[in-house]
Amino acid sequence: MFRLPVALWALYALLLVVVVSGRPAHLAKQVSHFDLNVTESLGAPDCHERVIRYVNGVYPAPAITVNTGDRLRVTIRNRLESESISIHFHGVKQTGTPWSDGTSHISQNAIPPGKDMTLEFHVRDQAGTFLYHAHNAMQELSIFGALIVQDQKEDRKHFKYDGERTLVLSDYWHNSSIAQEQGLLGTPFKWIGDPQSILTNGITQFANCSTSGKLSPKAPNGGYAVTTVEKGKTYRFRIINAATLGFFRFDIPGHKMTVIEADGTLVEPRAIDHLEINAGQRYSVLITASSPSDKDYWMSTQAMWRPKSAPNGWSILRYSNSSKESTAPAHGIPPTSLPPKGPEISGWMDRHLVPLHKVRIPAPTGPTMQLNFSQINTGPVGANTVRWKIGRQSYVLPNQAMLLQHYNGTIKDMDPASKPIYVHKNRVVDILLQARVGTLNGVCEQHPFHLHGHSFWDLGGGNGTWNPTMRPDTKHAVIRDTLTVYPSPSAYFETPQPEGTGCGWRRLRFVADNPGAWMLHCHIVAHLVMGMATTFLVAPNDIPPLPANFPDWMTGGIH
Ligand SMILES: *[C@@H]1O[C@H](CO)[C@@H](O)[C@H](O)[C@H]1NC(C)=O
Ligand SMILES: *[C@@H]1O[C@H](CO)[C@@H](O)[C@H](O)[C@H]1NC(C)=O
Ligand SMILES: *[C@@H]1O[C@H](CO)[C@@H](O)[C@H](O)[C@H]1NC(C)=O
Ligand SMILES: *[C@@H]1O[C@H](CO)[C@@H](O)[C@H](O)[C@H]1NC(C)=O
Ligand SMILES: *[C@@H]1O[C@H](CO)[C@@H](O)[C@H](O)[C@H]1NC(C)=O
Ligand SMILES: *[C@@H]1O[C@H](CO)[C@@H](O)[C@H](O)[C@H]1NC(C)=O
Ligand SMILES: *[C@@H]1O[C@H](CO)[C@@H](O)[C@H](O)[C@H]1NC(C)=O
Ligand SMILES: [Cu+2]
């Protein structure tokens, strides 16, 4: 029998500690290196074949899992034929690294085909469920994947579960995003319509996969995502809405869900019978596998706050005797109808949330910034050219990234439609988002607003038009990064309203403690492309210098 030297035994013991109990504190600050090699080729996520984007050969992009405190070094290789890309880590604050936000036109110029770029950043004081996705015009969510930041010590202190599962929900069109963008920005305006499919972990069935003849030689090949659980165990389901349009209702028959996390903030556990999750939002729910194990449960995802939903947002919850999760898709036959949606109730989900850790909410240190937004028609009479106006104007992305223009000293020469709102260091900013009926079709819609570089308190909202007697809702003020401006149910969508009618409002508050150039925008990508965005230049004098190794082509004027 061979004998290991004492030092090796010590190393073995240390490794055992690391594996068994999670990472010891002194090893917590790791550098994790990830490659994101972006390619495109034919695929058939819903059995209808089209060109899709793969990251490291898979769709959706692979999940990235790190620990709180880790430093990430992410190398993005753009191997697309002709499109520039950037990759944004949605919800990660990028404290001190505004150039790593991955937002093209704002934090960097997009990465041209054939080029590589490495982003470095810390996930300092954040933990929970995030996502990463492309952030260049309409291609926004053609590349998306889960980003999980573990803080096992903290999570296990409050919640008991035996395992984790991740469900990435997304919506999917058969038309290319380039065709969509041309339709949206062209005259006459052409809306993208509702998606053909709602995918779970990148697959569903639009056509019958056996008969459509569209079985792609490469994965994915459609079918239904299968999530396996063991009888008697409790799981943390991390549910990520990576849709470009859909506000989803998610149901699991025969199982109660208990929500414990919203956008990286732990909340008091609350039992819910279904989940409502907007584009860009994430929730963790606990579910216990205590139902009969001899059948499959069809989990469903359907769009709310739209006239109709794609009917194929199905995936399978399956009991298994193996502790290993199987990922092989199934080609079963789902139920014929989705669970009834019930009436759309503004803020139903938000009112189930109370932060687990109570933190003092600072008072705003300036006047409330009211951002009114509505659709405008800028086209000639009889032909529509449609944009979304927010605040003073419809936002036009600068050709050169705003942050680079900050370093160049050219922001002051920018087109007014691209200029940022200046924010002093550490100002406590209160923003009142007020939706109004525009000139086109009299509709009120929901809008998921996402802020870069900061999380905010979601201070509640209401129907119609805000007035100063309406106080912030501090009870449900969860710190998050994506909130919903709901339309009043009575003014919703199908019922045309006169121009100027208040559709609904919501208030958020954030501490501007992260110098940089940051976007606040609607996460409905079509709305973003149509100008529903604004930018903040936070504490320009305190923006740290650009790292010397920032790629040449970035500052050389290539778009
Ligand atoms: C990404 O591409 C590089 C360069 O071709 C290669 O060295 C690396 O192994 C690839 N990474 C992955 C995860 O596929
Ligand atoms: C797809 O795009 C083409 C070209 O823009 C357009 O003619 C067609 O109507 C679009 N199809 C759908 C389903 O939106
Ligand atoms: C698990 O194993 C038990 C006992 O062998 C068996 O009765 C049961 O059907 C199995 N369940 C599944 C889901 O395979
Ligand atoms: C798909 O087609 C095959 C072959 O015709 C059939 O056996 C199967 O039931 C169909 N599946 C669905 C989901 O309709
Ligand atoms: C937003 O609308 C309100 C009410 O019509 C108006 O008082 C306010 O000035 C508008 N704010 C901005 C910034 O345009
Ligand atoms: C909004 O209006 C609906 C009825 O249309 C009502 O049920 C709801 O309570 C209102 N919400 C708020 C926050 O006032
Ligand atoms: C910065 O200025 C240099 C020199 O004038 C110019 O070549 C470069 O394109 C500018 N970069 C940006 C991002 O404006
Ligand atoms: Cu919107």
TrEMBL record:
Annotated family: Belongs to the multicopper oxidase family.
CDD domains, alphabetized: CuRO_1_LCC_like, CuRO_2_LCC_like
Residue intervals of the Plastocyanin-like domain: 39-153, 165-322, 410-541
Taxonomic source organism: Powellomyces hirtus
Lineage per the UniProt record: Eukaryota, Fungi, Fungi incertae sedis, Chytridiomycota, Chytridiomycota incertae sedis
GO molecular function terms attached to this record: copper ion binding; oxidoreductase activity
Region (Disordered): 325-344
Protein name: L-ascorbate oxidase
UniProt keyword annotations, A-Z: Copper, Metal-binding, Oxidoreductase, Signal
Pfam families named among the record's database cross-references: Cu-oxidase (PF00394), Cu-oxidase_2 (PF07731), Cu-oxidase_3 (PF07732)
InterPro entries: Cu-oxidase-like_N (IPR011707), Cu-oxidase_2nd (IPR001117), Cu-oxidase_C (IPR011706), Cu-oxidase_fam (IPR045087), Cu_oxidase_CS (IPR033138), Cu_oxidase_Cu_BS (IPR002355), Cupredoxin (IPR008972)
Signal sequence annotation: 1-22
